[in-house]
Each structure stands twice: as structure tokens, then as C-alpha cells.
Amino acid sequence: MQLLRVAWALTGAAICCFLILLIHSRLLKEGQLAAGTCEIVTLDRDSSQPRRTIARQTARCACKKGQIAGTTRARPACVDAGIVRKKQWCEMVPCLEDEGCDLLVNKSGWTCTQPGGRVKTTTVS
């Protein structure tokens, strides 16, 4: 009798999981991002110049209302649209935790300075 109850419970749990997966797959079609998330589509690195690496990446984002694609902690992310409109890039927190953020003089991007003095510059086109 006890074994029969366990079997029915496991069967019910399996059906429940299957239904949840089925509903989830209907809501998010293949290739569709969940709201508020981003993914890197392409990443290109050019190290042809000595002591300099130029990296370009393209991200695809599904941002919520009032948000726009940006960068947080060196990863693509949805950020408040006002940050981009005002070009106050460091408000996105684009650098890693141990790095310092500074705006470029013409507000065309920002720099992330590592503790050892290495500087990463990001420009926005």
C-alpha cells in the first residue's frame, strides 16, 4: 500500500514537471530572450597592434520598458534608459568590482582602471 502511494506521488510530480516545461516552452520560443536579459551574439578580438587589443562585441537584449541595452560589470545588461540619454556611463557600473570607472572627456565612453594600472577604454558609437 505504501509503495503504491509513493508510485502515485512520483507519477504526479513527473506530470507536473512535464506540464511546467511545456508551458515554459510555449511562452519562450526558441531564440527568444526572457525580459530583462541579454546575450552576446558576436565577439571579435584584434591583437595586431603591440600592447593593444581591440575587442568588439554585439549583444542582443530583451529589455523592459524604460530600459536599454548597456553594460554592467563588464557584461551586457539592460540598464535605465536615462543613463544612456545623459551619457553618464559610469552609473551603469560597467567596470568590474576592483576597477575604477571614469568618463571620457567628450562623454563618448568610459575607462576602467585596474589596481595594477592597466586601463580598458570603451567607446560608444
Helix content: 25-40%
Low-confidence stretches: none
Query: What is the domain tally?
Result: 2
Order of helices and strands, N to C? Answer: HEEEEHEEE
Biggest β-sheet, characterized?
A: 3 strands, antiparallel
The radius of gyration computed from the alpha-carbon positions, rounded to a whole number of angstroms, is: 22 Å
Structural class: alpha+beta
User: Would you tell me the overall average pLDDT?
Assistant: 80
Main β-sheet, spatial strand arrangement: 5-6-7
Basic shape: elongated
Query: Could you tell me how far the N terminus lies from the C terminus, measured between alpha carbons in angstroms?
Result: 69 Å
Q: What's this entry about, in short?
A:
It is built from two helices and seven strands, in the order H-E-E-E-E-H-E-E-E. By secondary structure, it is an alpha+beta fold. The strands form three sheets. A three-stranded antiparallel sheet has the order 5-6-7, with no helix packed on it.
Outline the structure in words.
The structure is a single chain. This protein is an alpha+beta fold. It contains two helices and seven strands. The protein folds into two domains: 31 residues; 87 residues, no CATH class. Helices cover 26% and strands 36% of the residues. The longest helix is centred in the N-terminal third of the chain and has 26 residues. Belongs to the TAFA family. One of its GO terms (cellular component) is extracellular space. InterPro entries: Chemokine-like_TAFA, TAFA-5.
List descriptors:
7 strands; two-stranded antiparallel ribbon; alpha+beta; 2 domains; 2 helices; 36% strand; three-stranded antiparallel β-sheet; 125 residues
